[in-house]
Predict the 3D structure of the following.
Amino acid sequence: MTKQTDFQNWLDELRQTTDYRAANAAIDFIVECEMRRDELGLTYADLARKLNVSRARINQLFRGETNMTVRTMQELADALGLALEIKTASVGLNADKRLRNLSVLNTWTRNGDDFGDVNEDKSKDYCGSAA
């Protein structure tokens, strides 16, 4: 085996671990929050005031130095005017298609589109089931 093959095998195995997937989800959330904070022109200090926490706490959250609870994620999303949605998807043959569909929903949410305009049939197209 080549070094590249060994590395790819190691990376493939790593991607299957719970720690990797959890860290990836946390990074995705923080990136979305950081982009929204930037769009709103908020500083970390502004966000700390909105959440009634210290600036050091906001720094911890955005640097990934703490394991956020769902409540903390919701509070942060609320402060930034984002909708927090936790989705699950099957693993296996159809997983890639479903995950791509969830990415579309994430983009809609980030752009502030109103899901009220999406009819039930269209929701089935994007989610795989009725909204």
